Amino acid sequence: MSYTALSFTLLFVLGTMLVSVWQKLGLEKDIIVGTVRSAIQLLAVGYVLQFIFKSDQVIYVIVIILFMISVAAWNAAKRGKGLRGLVWRIGLAIATMELLMMGILLSLHIIEATPQYIIPISGMTIGSAMVVSGLFINHIKHEIQQSKGEIETLLSLGATVPQAVQEVRKRSVKFSMIPTIDGMKTVGLVQLPGMMTGMIIAGADPVVAVRYQILIVFSFTASAAITSMLLSVLSYRLFFTPDLRLKQIVEQG
């Protein structure tokens, strides 16, 4: 695709902005900022990946994966305003998931140990883990506030903190997994995922493209579940003071 042809896709953005103006939604600034940022970021990543793929150095792969984990953790942690130490906990959960996923994929020779495979698959699974982390934190905050009386009653009756928040953690993990599970149920019927579509457009055999997409779908599901469950273990104590009283947490959408 030429840059000239690519520039015509701005018509979609312009159309969206005109609808926003017409309906007085006030989204024009956000749309412009998002358009510019996404274009610059993707072009920059394209050139960075081009350099990494040509150099084929392990250190560059490690650096870019650590960078992706850091950005994902920072972004997801914004859902937990007022919870100190949340960023590194999310980062640890995502990093652990990444080590497990890549360890399995590489040790079983499911993918080749090259930057062309490791970086894109890592990016997709880390992105999925980021979304799940944000959903989990947002929901557990709401659940703890709604179940405050129940939790305090359990604590007063001698329950430990893990016992008092067990149901809250369970509901939050299930909630964070809803988009991933719904996506699994409808993939190929409602949506044709990006990786498969891209490979088909590039000329790959549709059956081969589907096999790679199945790999991604299963990886997404595993990464989402691992990250959410790890985060539920690492983060629940952030909602309590050292003397086991619930903190007053600011609700955030």
TrEMBL record:
Record key words, sorted: Membrane, Transmembrane, Transmembrane helix
Organism field: Paenibacillus odorifer
PANTHER family found in the cross-reference section: PROTEIN ALUMINUM SENSITIVE 3, UPF0014 INNER MEMBRANE PROTEIN YBBM-RELATED
InterPro entries hit by this protein: UPF0014_fam
Intracellular or extracellular location(s): Membrane
Protein's name according to its UniProt entry: Iron export ABC transporter permease subunit FetB
Topology in the lipid bilayer: Multi-pass membrane protein
Parts of the chain that traverse the membrane: 6-22, 34-53, 59-77, 86-111, 117-137, 187-208, 214-239
Statement: the UniProt record of this protein carries the keyword Nucleotide-binding: no
Family of the protein in this entry: Belongs to the UPF0014 family.
